[in-house]
Amino acid sequence: MRHRREIIYLFITMLIILTLVQTASAQQSYSMNMARGALTLAYLPMQEEKVTIKFWMKSELGKTLLTEIVTNKGQSITYRAEEVREYRNRTRLVFRGWYRDSELVTTNQAISINATSDAEYYAYYDVEYWIDVDLGYERVSEWIKRGDELRVEVPKSKELSNNTKLIFEGWSGDFEGMNRFIKIEVYQPIKASAIWRRQYKVYIVSDPQAISEIVGGGWYDEGSEAVIRVLKPVAFLNNGGTKAVVGEILADYELKNYEDLKFENVSEVSLNVVSPIFVVVRWRFYHHVLISSNYINSTMADDWVLDGDFAEYEVPKEYRWDNGTMIKFEKWVGDITSDLNPIRIQVRKPIRIRVKWRVFYLVRYESAYPISTNLSNQSTWIEKGSSIYFNASPTIRLLDEGVRVVFQGWRGTLSQTSPCLMIKEVDRPLDLRAEWKKQYLLSIQAPDEAKIRDEIWMDSGASYEVYAPPIIPLSNDSRLIFIGWAGYECADPLCNITSISKPINLEARYRFEWLARIHVVGYDGEPVEAVSLVLRCGEDSMKLSSDSTTWIYEGNWLIENATWKGFDVSPRQSIYIERGIQDITIPVRVFKAGFRITDYLGFPVKDAEVSVSLMNGTILYEGRTGDSGEMWNVGPLPPCDLMVRVKYLWFSSSRVFNIGSSRPITVTVPISLTTIYISAGTIALFTALITFAAYRKKREMLRREYYEIPPEYPPPSPPVMEEEETEEHVVVSVEDVLKEIEDEALKKLLKERRRRG
């Protein structure tokens, strides 16, 4: 056991010695690459696999390899980067942190890693530039990160403590231009200076202070010329009571080696500015004597008097103006009080004196009607401050029926509407006038529904507007319509009465209207449709149609125009429409005609075809006559020339007629069946008569022959012959002949009708 323990101790000692030897060898191998950093290696037990670790420095300007270490895998490595790396070109790099593959590892300068594989680590640095800007009164020097914004601002002017001021004029160096405010992004070192112009201050004081405005003080460029000028060489003090005159001007340079200057009796000097200058303006004084007055002249005396001199003044004892004012001298008041006139005073300071007067005013009044007052007459002198009064009551005075006067107020110097004018203290000339206004009564009559005032007093010459509602509804089917004014010439519902000069009785006239239905009838009293009407009553006119509803009023209405189917059917007559009639009948010249068809013998023609047409051939009506040969109620027809055509059998006849001139209308055809029947009967009668006559004649001849037969021949027996003759002709008569002729004619007429049908 003892030997075994010694062997173990020996083995451990050899391992320690071997480790120290390897550490010394590694430090000697990498000593050249460790100039800027410190590297410490701690070896694990020796391994044959090696890894490479690279350390880089990287910034916006690029990257640089710091060191490269080859070591055993698993070895622990520590490397420390510099915090700041500064260069001669006013540029430096400031350490930000260690990164691997764009990922932050640590922000510490020292990094410790376990070398398990090849790797690269980057020490990122921010680039900064040195900024050096001389502002003249201070210096701006600092490091600015690359890309950051630099802001530099200088005032327009910079005043120093020794009465010296700098005026900014621009930049030199890396800054250019005249802009006082510089704002840039830094990408390089900057060196710039502000350019200034030097000025000196010129002080001006007045002895004594604040006498007059003096210009020329202030800041001047070095080497320029300052002009000192007293704007008012004669200045007024003590509210204008003292006058100061420039005596001398002194210029004191702050530089002791520059001669001071003195100017007398001048108000303007020029000075060369080589240092701050102190200027003193000295004055001489005079006193002002002013005598004022409220009357005559506002300024009785306005003199500049040397201190200690005497002055004498005098004013009128009494004075009057044309405006009704009178004054009397009372005394002097102000800095000096005296009742002497004239007065002599010694001036040792600014003096203000006012002349005091006793004031009287002329008071006048007038009125067209009696008033009460405490004045003895209408024009008198009243001392200022006295009390007077006027009373114009009563204010309304009736002069005549519908005419009155109303007190309007006092006019003139004073104006008020109250009749009682009380002036406690008279302070001006008064010219008063009691103003009265004449009024006339305007009486208005109108229906209560119009809601118009009934009586109004109007000023003479005034104007007044009265409005009458054009339409006043009474119920669903009645209303009042404004038709005009009576008592004054007005045409519109809005009556403007101008320049009223007398009482006026004004009446708003309305007419009663109601809804009525219009019916149009022809001359036969039957309704006619589609008639357009124009009705007129006085100046009113309305257009309407048959069977329409309209507003109507009582009166005599002229049927001015009536048109039916393009024809003028106006009756040219008036109808009187009574109040309240709901159905109104309007007659028009539309007719229904009647026709009588006869033949030349005057017999009526039955079943004659009758047609009525216009002159242009337009057929208005067609029909047939009855048994009486007449045809009635043909129409309605217009009142114009018409053509009637009649066709009967083989005859045709026409006639022009005007329905307004004749009725019924008779049309004649050459022949009718009645004429034919009568003609046939007449012919048959004549034939029978002729036959009978021939028969009688023949009989007479036979009778004569019988009596002339010779005796040897026995005559025939007459009675037997007569009986035979009588038996042979007993069936022949005129009635039979006429009847047969009539039957034949009737058969022909029926045959003809069947043929036509």
Protein topology:
Layout: H1 2-29, E1 40-42, E2 50-59, E3 62-72, E4 75-80, E5 84-87, E6 91-100, E7 103-106, E8 110-115, E9 119-134, E10 139-145, E11 149-153, E12 157-159, E13 164-173, E14 181-185, E15 190-207, E16 214-215, E17 218-221, E18 225-230, E19 234-237, E20 242-253, E21 261-264, E22 268-272, E23 277-293, E24 299-305, E25 310-313, E26 318-320, E27 325-334, E28 343-346, E29 351-367, E30 372-373, E31 379-383, E32 388-391, E33 396-400, E34 403-412, E35 420-423, E36 430-445, E37 455-459, E38 464-467, E39 471-475, E40 478-486, E41 494-497, E42 504-521, E43 531-537, E44 540-545, E45 549-553, E46 555-564, E47 567-568, E48 574-577, E49 583-587, E50 591-599, E51 609-613, E52 619-624, E53 630-637, E54 641-648, E55 651-658, E56 665-669, H2 673-707, H3 718-729, H4 734-756
Parallel strand pairs: 2-9, 9-15, 15-23, 23-29, 29-36, 36-42, 42-49, 50-56
Antiparallel strand pairs: 1-4, 2-3, 4-8, 5-6, 6-7, 6-9, 9-10, 11-14, 12-13, 13-15, 15-17, 16-18, 18-22, 19-20, 20-21, 20-23, 23-24, 25-28, 26-27, 27-29, 29-31, 30-32, 32-35, 33-34, 34-36, 36-37, 38-41, 39-40, 40-42, 42-45, 43-44, 43-46, 46-47, 46-48, 50-53, 51-52, 51-54, 54-55
